[in-house]
Write a structure and sequence with these properties.
The protein is α/β, with parallel strands linked by helices. Helix content is 38%, strand content 16%.
Length: 675
């Protein structure tokens, strides 16, 4: 049944095939405008799934936009949550909210997250984005329908690359076991994933044969032929005795000439913005949707720009409150080079790859986390680089096998996947066996920005620190990341290195002291032309106290923010600060931390992480080891027990209070408390 009025159980509107085809064009156009206004997002997959989304939401699935929680509705789970732009325009076109709202895609606080959030938008059944989760949830929903004797259907939209994940095959097996004929999986088979063609990354062979061997009913279709799509969806609803998989052969980037069958358009918006060869204008011309005049398009883009102006004003208010602006590179002096910490890892792995005993394993995000630098300029190393696809748990175990046989194995993905999805493998196989596996927890914290909560890793410091025999490092900038990666290569045993995605101030260089396992003390010495020159660095064990008022103990990109806070505190209030860079969290340099507690009697910890993950480690060291002849006051800066959200990385840092201005205010409060 098409879109339904649940109060009378009658259709609100039924679309013909030709009307669906026009609606799909319109939905593609809205999606491309939203992606352009966001400046990021998943273009390719959103375009490839659009015809199916139009057929499902406007013609086949039973649902009521006026009553999103109606018990009698069909459930549609988007396991491939990165195709969120298609989901949003499908919901909007169905009537859940005005389509103009979708122009706020990936904007801070809009609800139109980079990956769907069911708590913020009506019609979204599942907060998703971590591939491999959706089918299992859909099975649970289908089982519930059976228990309740409901006649609704459950759909799960998946990608072909997603089938790299072992959890998908566990779900496929269980759905067949329970003969869930009310379950329909729709596979967007566009043959591309982030690292390249699916069969080159992890060969899927015949998905049809595999599903059939698991006792599923399988229908193969052209995923851009609207008549075939509708027919297959309707046949699947009628099939009894087994779940149905609709394998839709699609074109990634369908409808936009420069994006079709292009790997690079997996996760970016039009490269040229509004005008150019790879632009919004060209996309709209290719799509051919009627009614999208220049005036209409500009009006839609204005919605996004107006939203951004609101965000900018809100953000600016959060960094004010001092006699002048101390924000990065906003003054004539104290200038800083900005570079992503992942660049430093790329430089290191490129150099380390020269050793024939070193191997690397990528998990379909190789370019993004820079582990691809292992072989990019040295193709002869390709046989020592193993693309494991979207399968972090398996990659961890394969790396363990290589390490067991004497190899130095680097394995990497986004931190939320490389230390979260496979935590038990890290604990039991890597650490318990003391295998020489080095895990890159890339894009740590909220630096992944617009992708939202599913891709923002805010828990791994706590998760990894309590695994016995596991080294945990969090370097502060790109140069220290490079040095730390090389240092870990010389240490036999399991280790995790956490680094960020977006640009961070480069505050270290080849002259900066560095020693694995020893924290560094940093002291502000007065304004200079270059920000980094305004500070002196010392190995913690060699530092002599200078009567500082407060200690700021930080890790990762929060170290430059702590340095900026020390600048503010001295110039505004005459307060001297001892900054401690804990680049090695485990093993922890307890001596430098205890000395800071005893010398200053006031500590603030700073982490781009759930508050306490790092802070509680520092507090534990202080409480266990300090000589309590004098009191210590302590506070923590971190994310306040909440998930992240979409927004630009700097917006999110400010929104969550992870900036120098907030640290400085907290330091003053703490000093008053100490008095």
């Amino acid at each position: 049944m098409p879109i339904t009025d649940s109060s009378i159980n009658e259709p609100r509107k039924d679309y013909s095939i030709s009307e669906l085809e026009e609606k799909a064009k319109e939905m593609r156009a809205y999606s491309m405008i939203a992606l352009t206004s966001a400046g990021s997002g998943h273009t390719g997959g959103s375009l490839s799934i659009m015809d199916i989304a139009a057929a499902l939401y406007l013609k086949v699935a039973t649902h009521d936009p006026v009553n999103p929680g109606w018990d009698g509705r069909d459930r549609i789970f988007w396991s491939a949550g990165h195709k969120a732009p298609a989901l949003y325009v499908a919901l909007a076109t169905s009537g859940y909210f005005p389509v103009e709202e979708v122009m706020k895609l990936r904007k801070l606080g809009s609800g139109f997250e980079g990956h769907p959030n069911r708590l913020k938008l009506p019609g979204v059944e599942l907060s998703s984005g971590s591939l491999g989760h959706g089918l299992g949830v859909a099975i649970g929903s289908a089982l519930d329908s059976r228990l309740n004797n409901s006649d609704n259907h459950v759909y799960c939209i998946m990608g072909d690359g997603e089938h790299n994940e072992g959890s998908v095959w566990e779900a496929i097996m269980s759905a067949a076991h329970y003969r869930l004929d009310n379950l329909i999986a729709v596979i967007d088979k566009n043959n591309l994933q982030i690292d390249g063609p699916t069969d080159e990354i992890m060969c899927l062979s015949s998905l049809k044969n595999k599903y059939e061997s698991f006792c599923w009913n399988v229908i193969e279709i052209d995923g851009h032929n609207m008549k075939e799509i509708v027919s297959a969806l309707e046949k699947a609803r009628e099939f009894k005795g087994a779940p149905t998989a609709i394998i839709a052969k699609t074109v990634k980037g369908k409808g936009v000439s420069y994006a079709e069958n292009m790997v690079c358009y997996h996760g970016i918006s039009p490269k040229d913005g509004c005008i150019g060869k790879e632009s919004l204008d060209q996309a709209l011309e290719d799509i051919g949707a009627s009614g999208f005049t220049k005036e209409k398009v500009n009006g839609l883009l204005k919605i996004a720009s107006d939203r951004q102006k609101e965000i900018d004003k809100k953000i600016q208010n959060k960094i004010s409150g001092f006699s002048r602006n101390y924000w990065w590179n906003s003054t004539d002096n104290m200038k800083s080079v900005m570079e992503s910490t992942r660049i430093g890892f790329g430089r290191a792995i490129k150099e380390l790859g020269a050793d024939l005993n070193t191997v690397a394993l990528g998990c379909d995000l190789s370019d993004s986390i820079k582990i691809s630098s292992f072989y990019k300029d040295n193709p002869e190393r390709k046989n020592r680089f193993f693309s494991m696809g979207i399968a972090e748990a398996n990659a961890t175990l394969v790396a363990s096998g290589l390490a067991k046989e004497g190899k130095l194995a680097f394995m990497g993905s986004f931190g939320v996947f490389s230390t979260g999805r496979n935590w038990e493998q890290l604990r039991t196989t890597v650490a318990y066996n003391k295998f020489n596996v080095k895990v890159t927890a890339a894009h740590g914290g909220i630096s992944v920005g617009p992708d939202g909560a599913t891709h923002q890793s805010l828990e791994e410091i706590a998760l990894i620190n309590y695994i016995p025999d596991m080294i945990l490092t969090v370097p502060c900038d790109s140069f220290e990341t490079e040095r730390m990666t090389k240092a870990l290569a010389l240490i036999d045993g399991p280790a995790v290195i956490r680094y960020a995605r977006e640009s961070t101030a480069v505050v270290t260089n080849s002259d900066t002291p560095f020693k694995f396992g020893e924290a560094l003390v940093i002291r502000y010495r007065g304004e200079r032309e270059n920000f980094s020159d305004a500070f002196q660095w010392h190995i913690g064990s060699q530092y002599e106290p200078e009567g500082e008022d407060v200690s700021i103990i930080a890790c990762g990109p929060m170290v430059p923010e702590a340095m900026r806070a020390a600048w503010i505190l001295k110039e505004e209030f005459g307060i001297d600060t001892r900054i401690i860079n804990v680049h090695t969290i485990k093993p922890l340099d307890k001596g430098t931390i205890i000395k800071a507690a005893e010398d200053t009697n006031a500590i603030i910890t700073c982490e781009e992480h759930q508050k306490g993950g790092f802070g509680n480690i520092i507090a534990g060291a202080v409480c266990a080891l300090k000589d309590y002849n004098s009191p210590v006051v302590m506070d923590m800066i971190g994310v306040e027990d909440r998930f992240g959200e979409s927004g630009q990385p700097w917006e999110l840092l400010i929104e969550h209070g992870l900036i120098a201005e907030n640290i400085a205010k907290k330091a003053r409060e703490l000093i008053e408390k100490k008095k």
